[in-house]
Amino acid sequence: MDRKFRAQQWKMLLVTMFCYLFFYTGRHNFGWAAMGMAADLKIPYTTIGWISFSMLIGYSLGQLINGNLADRFSARLMVTLGAYLSILTNIAISFSSSPTMIMILWACNGYFQSMAWAPGAKLINNWWNERERGKAFGFYTMAAGMSSMVTYLISIVLLQQGYEWRMLFRLPVLLLLISATVFLILARDKPLTKTDPSVPLIPAIGWKDQYRIVLRNKKFMIACLGFGFESMARYGLIFWVPVHYLGNNWKDNPGNLWVTFLLPVGMAAGALTFGMLSDSLFKKDRIKAIAFGMTVSAVIAVLVYISPIHNLWLGGGLMLLAGFFVYGPQACFWPLSPDLLGSSLTGTGIGFMNMTGYLFAAFGEPLLGYAIDVTGDTNSIFIVIAVLCLFSALSVAAVRRVSVSKRVALAD
């Protein structure tokens, strides 16, 4: 592999990471706006949960469609178009006062947001071979974790400056506008010349056959089930932790805001760490890495539940660890698509897996919102999250790796 191609590899990875670094400003901003929206529009948290549900359903269905499209069309154009449409939708929500209209727009936003992850993963897979796949996806997943950090940071600052919830849908997405435009200019879908022979070519097979290969792979289906439970736990933290720590008197305890910021910090660190460890310590055994991470996550969720909320040092440490172990395994889930299905189905596989994850997460949102309404205690979500983490660990434990020759035979 020559130095020029190596430089291009890193350029494509970094520019894709830069673009996704700001994608969550158009999605994870909702949790921070939830309290102000509920008070302003006079709606219960159950309704807030259903609004969040609508976005996750839109995202889930979009993953099923856009993952396959990424195997056929330009990932560069798909990511950019999704970003621009998401920005417009967020701004439209900021001017709406109807819960029904917000729900419809937020569902559309979910679909637009889904045009980024699988296409971006496809682009990275086109540039990086199997030997370094875990590392590349680890960096990519780290960018997603850092995107939560950016969104949390901006939201905290805006709230502390006294901005209303509507501004959380207007200001943060301006950064996405910049990063998506940079991505459009610099990104390339695949190498122009086949300098690295291990980077796969796209076979000419029909879209029905692509889905059929995915659905018939039982190991991949079980992995998707484990990912579904992991996604429910992750979104339970991402969406409801801000609500939990904001409370009714967060202005009297501003330190609570910074405790929540440590959650995405841990997520970013965990993604990079697990991605690299899956290639080295776990010797490409993604299943062991995932099961380990999700088991530890369950323990941490229980510790959060029994810990006093007013202890900021303890709470901050636990949030850091919760983010690290619940999100880190995601970096190991994504390589399972090319590992089990073949590189040519990376987009379709990741899209289907992400669809499953967000479908699970969607049904978890109104359930958690209802639990808070019934118990009157946001702390109860952590017991539910602990159970979900255990379900994820048990699910992926049933998956066993297949050989390289079988993987290639399935799709290539």
Explain what you see.
- Helices cover 75% and strands 0% of the residues.
- It is an all-alpha fold.
- Helix 2 (30-41) packs antiparallel against helix 3 and helix 6 (117-127) packs antiparallel against helix 16.
- The chain starts with a helix and ends with a helix.
- Residues 195-202 and 401-412 have low confidence and may be disordered.
Residue-averaged pLDDT: 83
Give the number of helices.
Answer: 18
Integer-rounded radius of gyration: 20 Å
Element pattern in H and E: HHHHHHHHHHHHHHHHHH
Our estimate of the beta-strand percent is under 5%
Total strands: the figure is: 0
Distance between the termini: 23 Å
Overall structural class, as computed from helix and strand content, comes to mainly alpha
Biggest beta-sheet profile: none
Instruction: Give the % helix.
Output: over 70%
User: pLDDT below 50 for ≥5 consecutive residues: which ranges?
Assistant: 195-202, 401-412
Give the overall silhouette.
globular
Essential attributes:
75% helix; disordered C terminus; globular; mainly alpha; 412 residues
